[in-house]
Amino acid sequence: MSEIIPAILEKDFGEIKNKLTFLRERVKCVHLDISDGIFVPNQTWPFATGGFEDADFKRIMNEEDGLPFWTEFDFELDLMVADSIENFNTYLKLGPKRMIFHLGNKDSLGKLESFLDSLDMYIRDTVEIGLAFIPSDDLLTVSTLSHKVDFLHCMGSDKVGFQGEKFSLKALENIKFLKNSLPGIVISVDIGVNMENVETILDAGVDRLTIGSAIWKSPDPIGALENFQSLV
């Protein structure tokens, strides 16, 4: 049974709240894209509105508030940021159920592996850790690190940090290869999932479908979400 997870990629905290309001009682898990404009060229909240000095972000860090409707949703943070490891504890204060770290370049692999090895048991028991990779990444490296994370997050395009990109056939091949070579691995897919390709992606064996523009850019977002949910 696969899961549909709506993705929110917004520059403004108010828009995040608006979309979460729409999703209340419709889904349990929501994917929040955090982009810093360094690791990827796009910026989302909080970096588009002051970074760690953003007023809403600071209230959450000071435990004066939480993410909107934080008692109703499980949040999945996609950390498309250059400081994901250095500021791990800061992002952890946002209260996620899952945190996704990107494979990045070869120079950072050792640092990522050391970080994954250093996570204490309390964090591993309370927060799921995912490894994101793009279609052009080396699958041997992905496979090697797979036993250090709870799930793999397959990006549907090499262009990350944006919504509305086309899903790559290479990504589909990667999913099939990893499902075959790593029995039992949980794989989520992000970028480019739409009604035209969703059944093919499901047939490849994915466990979670992270969907953004196919929901939010639809003239009927509620109907679009329900159509996706009817397939899983």
Brief characterization of the structure:
With 232 residues, this protein is of the alpha/beta class. It has a single domain (3-229), classed as TIM Barrel (Alpha-Beta Barrel), CATH 3.20.20. The chain has helices at 13-23, 55-61, 88-92, 109-118, 121-126, 139-146, 169-181, 198-203, 213-216, 221-229, and strands at 3-8, 29-35, 74-80, 98-102, 128-133, 151-155, 187-190, 208-211.
What does the model show?
The chain is of the alpha/beta class and 232 residues long. The chain has one domain (3-229): TIM Barrel (Alpha-Beta Barrel). The chain has ten helices and eight strands. It has helices at 13-23, 55-61, 88-92, 109-118, 121-126, 139-146, 169-181, 198-203, 213-216, 221-229; strands at 3-8, 29-35, 74-80, 98-102, 128-133, 151-155, 187-190, 208-211. Strands 1-2-3-4-5-6-7-8 form an eight-stranded parallel β-barrel, surrounded by four helices. Strand 1, helix 1 and strand 2 (29-35) form a beta-alpha-beta unit. The longest helix has 13 residues, at 169-181. The radius of gyration is 17 Å and the shape is globular. The relative contact order is 0.14.
